[in-house]
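Replying to the earlier thread about multi-chain prediction with a worked example.

Input:
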Amino acid sequence: QKEVEQNSGPLSVPEGAIASLNCTYSDRGSQSFFWYRQYSGKSPELIMSIYSNGDKEDGRFTAQLNKASQYVSLLIRDSQPSDSATYLCAVNSNAGKSTFGDGTTLTVKP
Amino acid sequence: SAVISQKPSRDICQRGTSLTIQCQVDSQVTMMFWYRQQPGQSLTLIATANQGSEATYESGFVIDKFPISRPNLTFSTLTVSNMSPEDSSIYLCSVGGLTYGYTFGSGTRLTVV
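Result:
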């Protein structure tokens, strides 16, 4: 079992729809959780962080964390073609280690 | 957040040679991190570079293959030594940390032929 698992996709949604990206992790002691966006040929860019159970909203992005289920998700509302990218989930453990998932590729179709 | 200048952006190298990648940060940082991203895969941490001490390497990565320098708080280099085609990858430096996440350099796309 991978430490951080994401649906590899690709995930395709129409413009204006909600895109839902999911991530599960194995280390129950994990404390902080991040979502990075990586455009093709570019480096990852941090877009969201979440540290406690519940929802965290930032513009069109909402991160959701459920530590009991070891699950973190990213919702993108009113998806735009410019949101088309690979989204990486990263989990930081108490051991001082940051582990990245393999990423989910999102395509938003006009 | 910090701004990182990384170079070269890409290179094509002959097997058996070495390539040194440089990263310059616009502010002083305690730790810099070097990652590798192989095609279609996620990020794998190579090593953590602290100024004034030896880099700490992750399992599977050794200093002889990936020597790192950290001469001051704004600069670091990673050398990929005695390259083989299996070293073809994107190499990224980053700053930040566990609490607030990482900022990455623009990456070096290495192709070994």
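The interface with chain B takes residues 31-32, 34, 36, 42-46, 49, 88, 90, 92, 96, 98, 100-103 of chain A (CB under 8 Å).

Feel free to reuse this layout for your own posts.
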